[in-house]
Amino acid sequence: MISMLRWSYLPVLALMAAALMGQPVQAAPGYPKHETPIPPATITLMKGNNTAPAEPMLIRVYKKEAELEVWKRSTSGRYVHLKTFPICRWSGQLGPKQKEGDRQTPEGFYAVTASQMNPKSKHYLSFDTGFPNAYDRAHGATGSALMVHGTCSSAGCYAMTDAGMAEIYALMREAFRGGQKAVQLQAYPFRMTAENLVRHRLDPNIAFWRQLKEGSDRFEATKDEPVVSVSAGRYAFRPAKSLETEAEVLAYRAMEEDHVAVLLEEGRAAIRTTYADGGQHPSFTALWRRGVSLGEVSRPEALAYAGLERVIAPARVTRPVCPVPGTCTPSSADAKGISPPATGERLGAIAPQDGPSTWLKELPSLFTSAPVGGAAMSFTHDQPMILGAQAILPARLANKT
């Protein structure tokens, strides 16, 4: 029996090794490539997350991070993160695809049906993203056959390597067989955090990205698939059926808007991220630099100029500050990145100030100070609040307290 179990895992080990090396994958013995089973380890992962192969799934793609996430609906009715697949190659720049031949990978909300799956792709296996969708067409975007596929070559597609695509294809196939009509594909320029929106606030695509963040926030707040449409040339999102769930969305959105406001008050730098022609996940870059073959790679010379950040508006000059004169010793390196209150700001006490303080950087979204040796407490954004901490609030936010 032990010997049989060992042999049963050999196809899975072969897939893992091929994924690491970026080499072509052989289909599991006895199966055509488009019928390759979901790896046993992934089945076990599903069970641990209270989901199953036939349950609906959702895909989220992030260009800058070069990652593709698979989410599955659990028995709770909400989606849970199952796996993250590194993207071996994407092309173009951050921003939506606009015209045929611009090498841009699409950004936006797309629906992938079973008819868009291609078991005979020249790039091992693939599925069509559905570009152009209603939003793209409303803005005159052109192009076709924008895919997620195998290999490591892209001309407007998300290239996953054969091994990665084999598993993604299997996950989608089983979800369709379980009754899912369409898999939602959410494609983003980067993770839609307040920090990233502030950093890229001067990019020409920022208005479009704010629309994407609205949909992303809905999913983050509820872990439920957002219902997306297009109205007056912009993305629109149907309110949740439950008033309680919609309240969760509104609360999350308000928190993110306040987060953005505070970051702007802090004077964060604005940057532009540029690419010679797209990028890839660092894991593949590391293999390539070690001389490991990734198979067919599109424009490898461009990868040396991927993700270069150019400062458009520098950060506000900062200096150490002490909220209570004579009680602070902000001499550590942590104090260098903290700005003083701007005109019209005030200190709002979160907890009693009862000892010597020094500036800390644990809360990237807020100015904080803490007594030495203070005990950690819970706080929003999954960050600690230190006993004795004080927050500097913009005047317009302080008036709400």
Secondary-structure blueprint of this entry?
Blueprint: H1 2-8, H2 10-21, H3 40-48, E1 57-62, E2 67-73, E3 79-86, E4 108-112, E5 117-118, E6 126-128, H4 134-138, E7 147-149, E8 158-159, H5 162-177, E9 183-188, H6 194-199, H7 206-222, E10 228-231, E11 234-237, H8 243-266, E12 270-274, H9 282-289, E13 308-313, E14 346-349, E15 357-359, E16 369-371, E17 376-377, E18 385-386, E19 390-393, H10 395-398
List key phrases describing it.
single chain; 401 residues; alpha+beta; four-stranded mixed sheet; 10 helices; globular; disordered N terminus
Morphology call: globular
- Unreliable stretches (pLDDT < 50, length at least 5) are 1-24, 330-401
Number of helices: 10
Beta-strand proportion: 15-25%
Label the structural class.
alpha+beta
Q: What's the gyration radius in Å? A: 24 Å
Written overview of the protein:
By secondary structure, the protein is of the alpha+beta class. It is built from 10 helices and 19 strands. The protein has a 5-stranded mixed sheet, sandwiched between helices. A hairpin with a 2-residue loop joins β10 and β11. α7 (206-222) crosses α8 (243-266). It starts with a helix and ends with a helix. Residues 1-24 and 330-401 have low confidence and may be disordered.
